[in-house]
Amino acid sequence: MDFKDSPEEAEYRARVRSWLKTNTPTSRINRTIGDEDSQSIAAAKAWQAKKADAGYACTTWPKEWGGAGGTPTESIIFEEEEERLGLGNMATVFTMGLGMCVPTIMAAGNEADKKRFVVPAMRGEEIWCQLFSEPSAGSDVAASRTRAVEADDGSGDWIINGQKVWTSCAHYSDLGLLLVRTDPGVPKHKGLTMFWIDMKSSGIDVRPIHQAAGSSDFNEVFFTDVRVKDSQRVGEIGRGWNVALVTLMNERLSVGGGFGPNWPELMELASRLPGVEGKGSVLQDGGFREKLANWYVAAEGLKLTRLRSQTALSRGQTPGSEASIGKVVSARQTQVLATEALDRLDQYGIVANDDATSIIGGFQQGFFWGAAMRIAGGTDEILKNIIAERVLGLPPEIRLDRDVAFKDISRKI
Amino acid sequence: MNFDYSDDQKFLKKEARKFLEARCPITSTRSVLDNDSKAFDHKLWREVAEMGWTGAAIPEKWGGTGLGHVELCALAEELGRVIAPIPFASTVYVFAEAILAFGSDAQREALLPGIASGDVIGCLATSEREGVILPEEMSARVVTGKLSGVKIPVTDGDIATYAIVAAQDEAGPGLFVVDMIDEGVVRETIKTLDPTRSAARVEFKDVPCERLGAAGEGAALLSNIFDRAAVLFAFEQVGGADRCLEDATSYAMERYAFGRVIGSYQAIKHKLADIYVQNELARSSAYYGAWALSTDAVELPEAASAARIAGTHAYDFAAKENLHTHGGMGFTWEVDCHLHLRRARQLGLALGGLPHWRERLVRSLERYSTL
C-alpha cells in the first residue's frame, strides 16, 4: 500500500508539470457536455492538438496509432495534473470519441478505418457521438429499431431509416457510431449491425432536446433514407451487439466520476449558513455533521476504489469488479448532496443562481444533473443487475423476447 | 502508486484462510457461544500465536515476526471472516499497538514478547457508564501509583493478564498499565450481545499501576490508540461483511420460491448488489487506513475514522440483510446468520459507536479547513 510516486512516476509528473506550466491554455470550459459554444469547442480542439503533439493525448494508446505508448499510471498522472489546473473539462467533448467510439473502431474496425479515424480523433480534429439509444430502446438498447436495408441498386450500400435519441454532442459531431437493425427476422441481439457515419450525410436531421435542467445538451437524431457504404460497417453483419458491448464497457469505465461540487463545497457552504435555531452555523449542527461524515466516507471511498482499479491497470491486470460501483454511488450522492445544500439555504434555496461555477449554482445544477446521471450510461437498476449477475453470479433477468424473432416481439410504446 | 496487497501479502492471506478454514470452523465459534464458562478457544489462540500472528506487527527485537501492519490487516480480514472466538482484537489491535506506540522501552521489553508468544492477553478499559464518556469525565483515579475505579464493559477483561486503563491522576486524564493478576482486581464476566467474545465488569481496588505515555495526555493517547485499532477492526469488519455477502448469495442461489431461485428476483439481486457496493467502499477505506497506519501518516485520524464508519456500516448492513435473505431460517439459533449480526455489533461498539466516530471525522476535517 503506497500512494507515493515511484522515482519514474515522480520524474514523469515533474515533466508534465513543467510542460503544463508553459503550455496551459488561458481559457477554461465551465459548461456541461453538449452545451459548449463554438468558442469553447475551438479552444478544446486547440488544446487537444497541443497535447497530441507533446504525447499527452491518449497516453496509453500504442505508438503505431499515434499514442504515446505510456502506462496507465502516466495517463492518470497527466489527468491529475490537468485537473489541478482546472483543465478537467477541456476534453469532455472528446469523451464519446476517445473513450468509447474510437476504442470500438480499434477493437472491431478494419485497418482502413483505423488509419482514417484514430489520429484525427486523438488530435481533436473530429468529434464523435454515439448513436445507440432509441425512444423504445433505452435500458433495452438491443431493441433498436432503426433499420438498415441493402440498397436495391446493386451498389452494396445500405439505406438507413429511423430515430436515435439522447445523443450528446450530435449537433456538433463530425462522426457517429451507429447501431442499426439489419435483420428483424432473428432474435433481437442477432439482427444488429454497427456502422460509422458521417454526421453531415444527407438525410440526417439533428434536433436538440430541451432537457429538465433547462439546457439542450442531448439530441434526437432522425435518419431519412440515409445512404452509407458497406465499407462503413464496423464488424460483421449481425454482430452489431458484440461490437456495442465493447463500446458500452468502455462507456462505464469513462463515465463514473461525480458531478459538480462535493463534500468540501458543502462543508464550506455550511460554515457560512446559520443553524436551524439561529445560533451558530449549519456546520455546527449535529444532524448535518453526521450526514457530512457519511458523504465524506462515500466520496473518498469511491476515489480510493478508483485507485484500486488503477493499481490493477498499472500491474497489467484487468480492473476488478469494484470498477462497477462508481456511478451507482456517485450519481445518487450528487442528487442527495445538492438537495441538502438547497435545504440548508432554506427558502432562499429556490432562488436560481445561474453561475454554475459558484457553489450554490453548482449544487443547483447538481440537483438536476444528479437525476440525469442516475439514468445515463446505464440506470441504477441496470447497473445493479450487472453487479448481481456478472459479479455475484446471480441468475439473469427473465427475458421473454430472447428467442423470439425481433419482428414478432409484442410491445407497447 | 500501489493500492492493493502485495503478492507476498496475498500469499499470507491465502495461507491464513486455509488455516482458519481448517482450524476455526463455525463449530469453534459455536463452542464458545453455547458454553457460558468458555471465554475463548484456547487451542486456536495458541496456534495463532505459534504462527506468529499475535506478533505480526511487533519488531523482532521484542519477540515479534516484524511482518508489518499491512500484513496484520490481511490477517485481521481473515479472522473477521470466520468470526474467530479469540481475544485477538483486544490483545493485538489495541493493547499491543498501544504499548508499541507509547510504551517505554522497559514496558515494550516487558510486555511485547509475551504478546508475541500468546502468553499475554491484553485489554483496554475505558467505559464506565452508559453513553459516550470523555477521559476528563472518568471517575477511575490513580493516587500515588494505585488505581481505583470500576470499568464496564471491558472486552476480554475477564481473561486478560494485562490491561491499559484510562483514569485520572493529579496531572489529569492518563493511561495506566495494570497487571491483572493482583488481588485488588475484581472481575466479573458479564453477558453481552455477542457471547462469542468475552467481556467483564472490572473493579480496581488500590491496584499498583504504571503510567503509559505522557502524564495528563490521556485524551490524546486514547485518541491515537482508537485510530490505530479502528483500522484493524475495519479489516475484521470487511472480512465479516464479505462472508455475509457470500453466504447470502449462495443461499439465494439454492432457495426456491414461486418456482425459481430467490436470487433471480430483482428485489434480492439489488439488495445483494447494495451489499457489494458498501463492502467495496469499506474495503477501499480500510486500505487507505492500512496505508496511514503502516506509514504513520498525518492523515491517520480521518483515514481511521472513514475506515471505521465504512466498516461498521458495511458489516452491520451485510449481517442484517444476510439474515433477511435467509428468511425465517435466518432467525433460528442453528443457522449462523445471528453470529454475524452479533459480531458486527460487537465490533461496531467496542471502540465506540458510529455517532462518536462521525463526530471525530468531521472534527479532523475541520482541522484542514480555513474556518
In round numbers, the mean pLDDT of chain A is: 90
CATH superfamily (homologous) name of the largest domain in chain B = Butyryl-CoA Dehydrogenase, subunit A, domain 3
Count of DSSP H/I helices of chain B: 12
Shape of chain B: globular
Apparent shape of chain A: globular
- What is the CATH topology classification name of the largest domain in chain A? Butyryl-Coa Dehydrogenase, subunit A, domain 1
User: In the CATH hierarchy, what is the architecture of the largest domain in chain B at level 2?
Assistant: Up-down Bundle
Structure keywords:
heterodimer; A: 413 residues; alpha+beta; Butyryl-Coa Dehydrogenase, subunit A, domain 1; Butyryl-CoA Dehydrogenase, subunit A, domain 2; Butyryl-CoA Dehydrogenase, subunit A, domain 3; 3 domains; four-stranded mixed sheet; four-stranded antiparallel sheet; 8 strands; B: 371 residues; seven-stranded mixed sheet; two-stranded antiparallel sheet; 15% strand; globular
Outline the structure in words.
- The complex is a heterodimer of chains A (413) and B (371).
- Chain A is of the alpha+beta class.
- Chain A has three domains: 7-126, Acyl-CoA dehydrogenase/oxidase, N-terminal domain (Butyryl-Coa Dehydrogenase, subunit A, domain 1); 129-242, Butyryl-CoA Dehydrogenase, subunit A, domain 2, CATH 2.40.110; 256-375, Butyryl-CoA Dehydrogenase, subunit A, domain 3 (Up-down Bundle).
- Chain A has eleven helices and eight strands.
- Chain A has helices spanning 7-23, 38-54, 72-84, 95-108, 111-122, 240-254, 263-271, 286-314, 326-345, 359-373, 380-391, and strands at residues 128-131, 147-150, 158-165, 175-181, 192-198, 204-208, 219-228, 233-234.
- Chain A has a four-stranded mixed sheet with strand order 1-4-5-8. A four-stranded antiparallel sheet of chain A has the order 2-3-7-6, with no helix packed on it.
- In chain A, helix 7 runs antiparallel to helix 8 and helix 9 packs across helix 10.
- Chain A is globular and about 80 Å long.
- By secondary structure, chain B is α+β, with helices and mostly antiparallel strands.
- Chain B folds into three domains: 7-89 and 109-118, Orthogonal Bundle (Butyryl-Coa Dehydrogenase, subunit A, domain 1), CATH 1.10.540; 123-215, Beta Barrel (Butyryl-CoA Dehydrogenase, subunit A, domain 2), CATH 2.40.110.10; 219-368, Butyryl-CoA Dehydrogenase, subunit A, domain 3 (Up-down Bundle).
- Chain B has twelve helices and nine strands.
- In chain B, strands 1, 2, 3, 4, 5, 6 and 7 form a seven-stranded mixed sheet that branches. Chain B has a two-stranded antiparallel sheet with strand order 8-9.
- In chain B, a hairpin with a 2-residue loop joins strand 8 (256-257) and strand 9.
- In chain B, helix 5 runs antiparallel to helix 6 (105-117).
- Chain B is globular, with a radius of gyration of 20 Å.
- Classes of the chains: A alpha+beta (413), B alpha+beta (371).
- At the A-B interface, helix 7, helix 8 and helix 11 of A face helix 7, strand 9, helix 8, helix 9 and helix 12 of B.
